[in-house]
Each structure stands twice: as C-alpha cells, then as structure tokens.
Write a structure and sequence with these properties.
Arc Repressor Mutant, subunit A, 3-stranded antiparallel β-sheet, TIM Barrel, alpha/beta, 3 domains, 15 helices
Length: 329
Amino acid sequence: MAHKVVGEVEVPSIFFGGGTPSLMPAQELAAVISEIRSKFSLLPDAEITIEVNPDSVTLQFLHEMRAAGANRISMGMQSAVPHVLQVLDRTHNPENVATAVSNARAAGFEHVSVDLIYGAPKESFADWQSSVQAALSLPIDHISAYALIVEKGTKLAAQVSRGDLELPSEDETAEKYRYADDQFVAAGFDWYELSNWSKPGGSCKHNIAYWDGSHWWGIGPGAHSYLDNKRWWNVKHPSTYIQKVSEGDLPVLNEEHLTPANLADEYIMLQIRRREGIPLDRLDKKQVENCLAYLSSGHIDGQSWRDGKLVLSQSGRLIADRIVRSLVM
C-alpha cells in the first residue's frame, strides 16, 4: 500500500519497534524485510533495527534476524535494580540483559543499544548510579537515557495520584541526567541528541530521521507517518486495522497538514535537541534576542554561538523545553 502512494523510493532504515517485535517468529519479520526489498530500493547500508526484550529474545532469533539483514539491536534495559523495574512494571531479570547483549554480539550485530529510564519513584541516586555503571559494563555502542514520563490512565499514574508512590524532585532528576552524561562521555559515548549517546559510528540513523524532518511510513495499529508536510496516524484496534488493510484501504484514523509556521516551529523543537544545533541564520531577530539571556547564563554553548549555531550546553539540555517555548511562542 505504501508503494502505491510513494512509488519507487530509497529506504535508508527499517525499525521494528513499538512493543516487543522479538516475540514474533523471526521468519515473519524476515518476510517483512524481504517485501520491502521487493517493493523499494533498500539502500546497501540501510539500518535495520529490532527492539528486543532481554527476557524473551533467543540466540536463534538473533542469528535468524542477522541473516535476514537486521544489523542493529535496541534493548529495553530500563534499570539494573529489581525494585525500580518493579515500579516501572517491567518483568525482566536484570541479569538477562548482559546475556542478551552478549548473544546479539555473538550473532554478528555490529550495533547494540540499551535504553535506561531515570526518575522513577523509589529510585535513589545510588540506584541510578548502579544502572548507569551496569549499562556501561556491556559491549554496546549506543545508550539512551529518558526521564520517566507518567502517562495518564496507567497503573503508575494511579499510584502517584493516590499518593502510594512519590515522584522524585526535579533537582534530583536533573542530577541524574548530569551524572549519566558525565559517565557516558567519560566512557567514550558522545551525546548527539538530548537523550541519546553513541560511540563513533553508533548513532541511530532511524531516530535521526525523526529529528531532521525526514519522511517515514508507519505500519501497524496506531502507527504514525509523515510525508510531504502531512502527518497521519492509523486506527488503533488490531481487528479494524486488519479489516481496512485486507479491503485495500489505508488504515488511517486521522491526519493533519502542517503549515509553513508549523514546520518552522517543529524545526526548532526538533533540531534544538541535536548536537548539531540550529544555524543562527534560521532564527529571526526576536528569536536571537530571546537567546541572549540563556547564552549569558551558560545554557547555550558559547563557542558554538560564536561559530554561528545555537547548541545547548549540558545545563541547557535540562531546560530545553523552556528555551524552545521562548523561541516558538
């Protein structure tokens, strides 16, 4: 269906995520890769990523996916501390992460990434230090660290609302970010996006495509897509999704068309997250003026500013949303 809309295009990346795709048989995922190859021009150096759960992923699955062309593994580690994982409602055994990473390397995956979450209730600073050090002890070339966001309607949101669990202070969460950034950099990982660090050559091409405004096509219930200044999202119920696809219809629930003003704001919101920053000639006079206070306070990197770019310092990354609001509102 995507082929009918976009025609013959080059595909630089494929990402299997949004759940636990490693629970699917490897043959089915390999069939998807094969179908994409048959319909489009999959670039020779295309990045093909599989998200996996360290408890359920097997060495056989990893070997089969590597043979099918997958070359990147993204693993949801979240924490190395059992009671923190319990709060996050994660079931995996922390010890299985090291085994799964080792198996991914043994299967021939060049790029292996783990995701961490900080700022959970009951997570002490020492707990976070343990998780960071556990991640850095693994043979990985990429690491992500995200501040916990409590989504409405979740079990965790209800526990926080009732007072059963208490979220840490903003100052504590900020210190956890600083600690992680310092440790990652010392271990040879450079930040290339607010929540992502990699060793040379290990950055995630697929995620960069979201931040630099590239097009993508999402497949599956609830998946989002972006093409030619239009964003749309699919129906969420699997049976409705299957019915629409089987009838030859695009399974779209709704869509929005981005205006030039929308695109300008989104450029700032996304590009400011990246180490490359925003060229100052992309900002108007008022926006540049609004940056000066943050430049004086050290939230914007001085040398980059002198080089003609707005790049956030470590302290600036902690208040990125505030700086964005001063530029787009």
